Amino acid sequence: MATPFDSIDKAATALVALHATEGATVHLGLWARVTGLTVDDVETSLYDAHTIVKQIAMRRTLFAFPRDLLPAVWGSAAARVATQQRSQVLRDVERAGLADDAEAWLARAGEEVLALLSDARPRTATEIRTEVPALASKITRGTPEKKWGGEVAIGPNVLTVLGAAGRIVRGVNGGHWRLNRPVWTTPEAWLGAMPEPVAAEDGYATLVRRWLAAFGPGTEDDLVWWLGATKTIVRRALADVGAVPVSLDGDAGGWLLPDDLEPVAAPEPWAALLPTLDSTVMGWKHRDFYLDPAQRPYLFDTNGNAGNTAWWDGRIVGCWVQDEDAAVQVVLEDDVPGEARAALEAEAGRLTAWLDGVRITNVYASPQMRGARLP
Question: Which class for 166: exposed (0-12), middle (13-18), buried (19 or more C-beta within 10 A)?
Fold first, then answer.
């Protein structure tokens, strides 16, 4: 990209958080931004040094956060998700008839999980369910004819509540780096001594300040969407950080930090291949400034989730996929200039070499990725 970082920590901080819903996104997003990065570098940051930590938060999405941001996240966006998911689990317990007192059932199940993990030995969800039988209880989601419906164990939902609340955390990855296979443990065992979660208002102010520094100028709608919060929460946070209103193209109103009002020089043209659900691609709700609106249905699914993208000089100009030999191929719009094609082909070669035969599978493959015709 235009200004590669010289460390994982700097890149993660600059983006506020790295999307981690798909296991490969953390590694590929950092590859695009950090000079000389190796897979082992990312694994070390995640699982040895713990300088970036996976945590479910905004919009019930899994992110890898810089460690110092966790208290703010735990007190705000993650706490909001925990409350929402807790309500869902209580409804599921009641509907399934698992207990007369759903509150007591969930409290007891949570305490049993915490007691199990108190020995500091990480366990997979399957191992936890084996040793905490309540988590094997079945609930019904949707209708059986739906691919996501039918009878499922309640255990993953209980772990989601505990994880969002910061009472348990994802430890080492139990599988290949391109996949999410979390092994659960306690924050104390994984992170050692940590500050307590901050008050919700302070936590949201911290997140909004960092978002504006990374993605500003942006709109109130962008922040409401990115945080998975309400207009009331966002407006309070904007006031708390002293955000300044600015005019955007198309008569939209946006916001910047008060110390970030000076004009910024345009960088030299740059090329980048970014992964599915990349933090930059998913940084704003309103995306027309970096994307031809006609291309949106091809690059995003109906929920706004982005697939792999190819960028030239600040705009998305296509996507990238892998062929049967794991070589990266770019799929570009017809009007992309030759300079851009050459730069993106060079990035494809660099990524092919870095992946070294590893093929990435994507849950959130975009329509353009699925429809790509490779030579």
Answer: buried
Residue 375, in any domain of the structure: no
H/E element holding 204?
helix 200-215
Residues in the chain: 375
pLDDT single digits (tens) 64-102: 999 999 999 999 999 999 999 999 999 999 999 999 999
Packed helices 77-96 and 200-215: angle between N→C axes, nearest 10 degrees = 120
Residue-number span of the structural domain to which 226 is assigned: 199-264
φ, ψ for residue 358 (rounded to 5)? -75, 130
SS3 236: helix
CA angle 322–327–330, rounded 5-degree value: 60
Quick: pLDDT tens for 344-375: 999 999 999 999 999 999 989 898 888 876 55
Cα 226 from Cα 99, distance rounded (Å): 36
Q: How far apart are CA 98 and CA 281, in angstroms?
A: 42
The residues facing 63 across adjacent strands are: 19, 55
Is residue 228 in some structural domain?
yes
Domain count of the fold of the chain: 3
Residue pointed to by tokens 């919700």: 200
Contact between 159 and 167 (Cβ < 8 Å): no
Same domain, yes or no: 218 and 167: no
